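re the bet — no i am not wrong, look at it urself. input seq straight from the record:
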Amino acid sequence: MNVESLNIIAAQGPTTAYVARPSEKPIATIVLIQEYWGITDHIRDIAGRYAKEGYLCVAPDLYRGRIAADPKEAAALMQALDFNDGLEIIRKAIQETERVYGAHKIGITGYCMGGTYVLRAACEMPALSAAVPFYGDIPEESILKKLRVPTLFIAANKDGWITPQKVETLRQTAQKYNLPVEIVSYDADHAFFNDTRPQVYNSEAAADAWKRVLAFFRKYLGQAAARSA
C-alpha cells in the first residue's frame, strides 16, 4: 500500500485529499468522506483498509487541514462548512483522481457528516456507481427522488441524530419512487463504526457492516475475490 496526497483546487480555496493506493492495479476508486472531526487517524485507517482490499481510496479534506479537538469544535467546523463547497470539493476530488490515476468505476462512502454528503452526492453525481452512507442525514424529497445510484444506507436504531423516524422517511421515499436503496439498521448508537470512540463503538455491528459494504462494492464496482476473501 502507498500513501499519497492529492491537490484539489476548489472555488472557495484549495485543499488536499489523503490517498491510499494499493500495490497492484486498483479494482475501482472509493471516495471516502470524513466525519465531522476532519481527516483523522481513523479516516486514514479506513482508507488503508480499502487499499488493502484492492481499491484506490481518496479522502478529500473538506476542512482544508483542520481537525477538531473536541465535539464542540467539530460541530463548529461542520456548521461553518458551506454545503455547496463540500460538494464541489468532492466533485473536484473525483476529477483530479481520474486525471492523476486514470478512470475507474467510482464508489463513495462516508460517516456522520460524511454520510450526509454521500447520500446527497449520490443524488446529484450520476457518474458514481455505488454509494454507502453511514448514518447521514436525509435530503428533502425533491432531491432524494433523483437518486439513481445503487445505495446501501447504514443506520443505527439508537441514533439520536439520524433517528429511526428519519430512516423511515428514507424508506418511504425510496418505496414511493422505486429508488435503488437498501437500508440496514443495527441495534447500535450513532458513530458505531468508529473504533477510536469506545463510548459508541460496537464491534459486532461494525464487523457486519464492513462485510456488507465490501460485498456491495464488489457487486457494483467489480470483483477481486482473492483480495477480499
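see?? Residues 2-221 form a domain with the Rossmann fold fold (CATH 3.40.50.1820). told u. also Residues 123 and 143 are 7 Å apart (CA to CA). so pay up
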